[in-house]
Sequence to fold (73 residues):
Amino acid sequence: MSEADLMFKQLGYDLEKDDWEVCVYRDSGNEDLYIRFDKRYRVIMGSPTYDYFCDMPLLVAMNTKVKEMGWLQ
Fold:
C-alpha cells in the first residue's frame, strides 16, 4: 500500500480499483462520492461534481498520488 493509499484510507476513502488505466478511491460513507485518476489522459475527476469540495488533507492526498504516478515531469 502506497503512502497516498494510506492517506486516502485515513480520510475515509477505499481503494476500489488500481490498474494501468485508472485509480479510483470511493468514500466509504457515501458510495456516490469518488475520486478517479485517469492514467491514460492524466485527468483527475471527482464525482459528484455538484456540491463537491476539496479540503486541504484531501488535496495533499491527491498531490501525493500524482507524484507517485510520476505525472509531475
Observations:
- Residues 5 and 64 are 9 Å apart (CA to CA).
